[in-house]
């Protein structure tokens, strides 16, 4: 998941640069403490 996020952030930042918006754009990512429930480990985020 971290690798995927890193790759896609790079794509977003490159697209902003390609369009000339990279100097006037603030990119903010947020997350929570939850893991993806579909991976078959329902207790992975416990006790959060």
Largest sheet: none
Our estimate of the beta-strand percent is: under 5%
Instruction: Give me the secondary-structure category.
Output: mainly alpha
Percent of residues in helices comes to: 25-40%
Detailed description of the structure:
- The chain has 48 residues and is mainly α.
- The chain contains one helix and no strands.
- It starts with a helix and ends in a 30-residue tail after the last helix.
List descriptors:
48 residues; 35% helix; mainly alpha; single chain
Topology overview:
Layout: H1 2-18
Quick take:
With 48 residues, this protein is an all-alpha fold. It has one helix and no strands. The longest helix is centred in the first third of the chain and has 17 residues.
């Amino acid at each position: 998941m971290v690798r995927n996020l890193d790759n896609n952030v790079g794509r977003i930042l490159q697209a902003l640069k390609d369009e000339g918006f990279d100097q006037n754009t603030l990119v903010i990512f947020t997350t929570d403490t939850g893991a993806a429930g579909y991976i078959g480990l329902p207790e992975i985020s416990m006790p959060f």
